From TrEMBL:
Keywords for the protein's UniProt record, in alphabetical order: Cell membrane, Disulfide bond, G-protein coupled receptor, Glycoprotein, Membrane, Phosphoprotein, Receptor, Transducer, Transmembrane, Transmembrane helix
Molecular function as annotated in GO: thromboxane receptor activity
Protein name: Thromboxane A2 receptor
Segments crossing the lipid bilayer: 29-50, 62-88, 108-129, 150-175, 195-226, 247-270, 282-301
InterPro entries: GPCR_Rhodpsn, GPCR_Rhodpsn_7TM, Prostanoid_rcpt, Thbox_rcpt
Length: 358
């Protein structure tokens, strides 16, 4: 017999286990099979990135690898934390009410779902901004971003996602047990506080994808124009091409995997329609594939692989500044030298004026 709502913890007030839901989409095989696979893929990707990090001598490339390492760690920990809970439930069928009478465990899993869901999207947008500045404003920075700053930015992204995941604990939204009883997530409803958090989660995710799409498109167009321009002295740069290819695939995977869930959540709360459990589970499966497919971007779309796919390209090393026509770079250098010459000449004239010959 279920307890009354007055004595039922908040996380069990809407969906109170045990549940009888035998739809195929709720099968335990997905979690049991794909969680270990995703963890393995992310470990392989992490090793590949560490080796690339040790070999690279480019500061911009090092900063980009820091972002990629942050993304791999986030995907790995997301699969590990949520996968352990879900797989343990399917094997043991533990009673959530007895194990977690005060909802601490359920709140932790709900926070994990939000945190590890938003982090990849925010990191993708952050990397898009970094590459946009590096490719479209190569002369705006005297030096590339140091690794310490890249690490600080990754930590800041994690902090933002963590703060958002804490909002339901202070009354903005709420975490609840979800059917079939193996996981917890924020309540998707038209109730005022729940609606605010649902829309915040959806808008942050969709805005991150939109920023990534816009900036990556501009960066790719700029890179193609410079690489394929009429000036025959310009050269393709392997590092910039590799980073942009990886970033484009990360954006495409995130868009395909996350947009259905984000749009579904916003549409459900705005239309005040009842939650479709089957669609929620289906779109959660889609979102999980983001953490499984991301590692293959780092494994497959590396410079060594790209060289084999496009051996006719002139894979030379250097910074993005050498992507620009030699005439343009020469103009910048002449302008800089003339400016320095004017300053020196002006200073000399001023010194002469201070000591006139009598």
């Amino acid at each position: 017999m279920n307890l009354s709502n007055e004595t039922t913890p908040q996380c069990f007030s809407i969906n109170n286990p045990p549940f009888i839901y035998n739809h195929t989409i709720a099968s335990s095989y997905f979690s049991i099979v794909f969680s270990p696979l995703g963890l393995t893929f992310n470990l392989i990707a992490f090793v590949v990135l560490l080796k690339s990090f040790q070999r690279t001598h480019s500061r911009s490339r090092s900063s980009f690898l820091v972002f990629l390492c942050g993304l791999v760690v986030t995907d790995f920990m997301g699969l590990l934390v949520t996968g352990i809970i879900v797989i343990t439930f399917h094997f043991t069928q533990f009673n959530w009410r007895r194990l977690d009478p005060h909802c601490h465990f359920c709140n932790f899993m709900g926070m994990s779902m939000v945190f590890y869901g938003l982090c990849p999207l925010l990191l993708g947008a952050t990397m898009a901004v970094e590459r946009f500045v590096g490719i479209n404003r190569p002369f705006a920075r005297s030096t590339s971003m140091p690794k310490s700053r890249a690490v600080s930015i990754v930590l800041m992204v994690w902090a933002v996602a963590g703060c958002i995941s804490l909002l339901p604990l202070v009354g903005v939204g709420s975490y609840h047990m979800q059917i079939p009883g193996s996981w917890c997530f924020f309540n998707i409803s038209s109730k005022a506080s729940d609606m605010v958090f649902c829309l915040l989660f959806s808008l942050v995710g969709l805005l991150s994808i939109a920023v990534s799409f816009l900036l990556n498109t501009v960066s790719v167009v700029t890179l193609v124009k410079v690489c394929c321009g009429q000036d025959g002295t310009q050269r393709r740069r392997d590092y910039e091409v590799e980073m942009m290819v990886q970033l484009i695939w990360i954006m495409m995977i995130a868009t395909i995997c996350w947009c259905p869930l984000l749009v579904f959540i916003a549409q459900t709360v705005l239309s005040e329609s009842p939650l479709q459990v089957r669609n929620l589970l289906l779109f959660i499966r889609f979102a999980t594939w983001n953490q499984i497919l991301d590692p293959w971007v780092y494994i497959l779309f590396r410079r060594a692989v790209l060289k084999r796919l496009y051996p006719s390209w002139d894979w030379s090393r250097g910074s993005i500044r050498t992507l620009y026509p030699a005439s343009f770079v020469g103009t910048i250098r002449r302008f800089t030298r003339s400016s320095l010459g004017d300053d020196v000449l002006g200073g000399g004239e001023r010194r002469v004026s201070r000591n006139p010959v009598i």
